[in-house]
Amino acid sequence: MKVQQFSRIGFIMAAAGSAVGLGNIWKFPYMTGMYGGGAFVLVYLITIAFVGFSVMVAEMLIGALGRRDTVGSFERLAPPNQKGWKYAGFMGFNGVIIMTFYSVVIGWIFYYLFEIFTGLPTSTDTAKATFDALVGAKAGVQIFWHTVAVVIVAYIVYRGIKGGIEKFNLVLMPALLLILFGLLAYATTLEGFGKAWDFMFASDWSKINSEAIVRAVGHSFFTLSLGMGAIMTYAASLPKHASITKTAFIVTFMDTLIALVAGLVIYSFLFHEGAPAAQGPGLVFISLPVVLSHFGTLGTVLALLFFLALAFAGITSAISLVEPVVQYLIDRFDMTRAKAVVVTSLGYWLIGIGALLSYTKAWGETFSIGGKPLFDILEYTTDSILLPLGGLLIAIFVGYVLQKDRVYSALEHEMGKTYFNIWRFSIRYVAPVALVFMMLNLMGILKI
Ligand code: TRP
Predict the structure, then answer these.
(1) Spans of all domains in the chain
(2) How far is the CA of 48 from the centre of ligand 1 (A)?
(3) pTM of the shown model
């Protein structure tokens, strides 16, 4: 059972630390580029405002009322004849599945942090060669950095809510903000800034299609850390009198702001050099270093700061991906925290190695299923199936299963009657419809 509680600011930073991650700084910018800029951004913003925020309130509510691990919270809050809802709590396990590849990407970032000192690549060809060599051939190097990432995250989680998670977030999050806003301040002085602004905020609807919409909806869940019990697990340690609504609002706001800032920074650099926007996942690993190489020593410093911010963002999110399962093992199996951390970490460390090997030339085939690399399968399954499913279960549980009085008395004093009714409408109708629409579309479009 929980004994530790976050401080109010500690909880906000931890939840924001979970939300602000590779999704904001690595994924959001390249997706914006792939799906045509402004229109994608607008769909993303609308989904966050009308669906993401409501689901975040709902997920925090389950944690704050349940006060247990994810399985325990669902079980405790479900009415006596519906205890099967406890199985929804296994959404907490999505986190370690995400961690299998998330940790590999953090490993790439660590690798780049050191590579920067050997000089930035001056052409796209060399930059691409560096990235491809790492991902396609250097299995040992990747395993090394993946292991470093696993160990750092394990250590922080092992230190617990107060001494680890809260403490590290309170340092890493402000550091991340400082770096990003520093980079933004510099970016505004560049000629590319105006173009970056137009690219992100001038909506060209001709570029939007149903795939872009579905990806924007899916990403708004991923970026807010919704649908797998991360926010729920943290909320079980929410200080008693903290406002759920206010906290959810601050976290949503910070997460969105940081994604937009990251996008503006990257595209300012890119457009300054006249580089194209649609680069895909290699954006920050290939295009950005090349662009920054043209800035001389200053470029090296900027690259260092950028990858440092990326590493911080990745680590604080990773912690929240691991903690739900650790909490589950502690609550359910009476494990010590140390043992729970070791068991969890070993599990995803091993699968993570399979994931990174699936991108290498030597092992690619061995670690592919039906021609798809394990890495992609893990990402697709979590991102496109399990997260929306988790979000749907949360919306249904809070919208239809939890007694209305209970929900009302927990939130009404924070929201007031009108906002409560709007929020409840969103949870009961808007969120489920959006999520079902998204899942159906994905199954049709991507046909895995
Ligand atoms: N939100 C994080 C990001 O943007 C990733 C993440 C952390 C996450 N915890 C999560 C995603 C829980 C889904 C669910 O990188």
Answers:
(1) 8-442
(2) 14
(3) 0.91
